[in-house]
Amino acid sequence: METEQNQLIEFLEVLIKRCNGKLSHTVYRKPIHTDRYLHASSNHHPSQKRGIITTLTERARRICDPQHLEAELDDLKEACQSNGYRISDIDKSMRPRTASRQDPGEQLTFASAYLQTLRSAKDKRDLLSAAGVYRIPCTCGKVYVGTTKRSVATRIKEHQRSCRLGQTDKLAVAEHALSEGDHNILFGEARLLAPTSGYHARLVREAIEIHKHTNNFNRKVETLQLKQIWNPILRNTRTAPEEIPLNDGH
Ligand SMILES: [Zn+2]
């Protein structure tokens, strides 16, 4: 239980003040709060940076009563400036949203040649030049999951070659391509599932992907058998064959 001190008590992000028998409210910040937000020089998208100022402004308008709003907005402006934002940008982001909707002349148009950006590892998915775990689909709906320490593109060329030469004993893909039924291996649809380096990491990741792709035509003897300790994690990761997108871009 908390009790008021100096006629003040905080509740979540609201600071409540008791004054002449009335309660007023403003934004509460913990004493350890340092006014540090995403810095203006960070390589995040400008909309994310504007969004922080907008969100903080909206919180102030939501929480503060009229007698505290101005002081809170002034503090906010100062905090944004100390995080590197220009006063003109801060003012634009702090403008009430409803006002800009009512007045189309006030609407802000933003155009920028934006080159700096944070990349996620997912962007590497289409780059078959990387090493890692990959997937090759077949027209029959099954897939082959493989791994290589060289580039996936190089490895796929080997699969194609072994199919051409009918080396079914050498590679599972060739064996499947020449097995009974109508099988066209879709080498053009091959995808890198995970850029992974390191022998053990690759084998484990391959085993996980094989487990996930229940429609695989891998040879069991050729892959690592995952220890039982993985079971609780893997239980929910199986992907039904029809859910696997062949062109899953990003
Ligand atoms: Zn097939």
Give a written overview of the molecule.
By secondary structure, the chain is of the alpha+beta class. It has two domains: 8-103, no CATH class; 121-243, GIY-YIG endonuclease (3-Layer(aba) Sandwich). The protein is 34% helix and 13% strand. It has helices at residues 46-63, 66-82, 87-94, 97-102, 152-164, 172-177, 199-212, 231-234; strands spanning 8-11, 14-19, 22-27, 132-137, 143-148, 191-195. The strands form two sheets. The chain has a three-stranded antiparallel beta sheet. Helix 1 (46-63) runs antiparallel to helix 2. It starts with 7 loop residues before the first strand and ends in a 16-residue tail after the last helix. Residues 240-250 have low confidence and may be disordered. Zinc ion (ZN) binds at residues 138, 140, 142, 176, 183. The site of zinc ion has 5 residues, from loops.
Please describe the structure with a list of short key phrases separated by commas or semicolons.
single chain, 250 residues, alpha+beta, three-stranded antiparallel beta sheet, 13% strand, binds zinc ion
Strand order of the largest sheet: 1-2-3
- Using the alpha-carbon principal axes, give the shape: elongated
User: What is the number of domains?
Assistant: 2
CATH superfamily of the largest domain, please?
GIY-YIG endonuclease
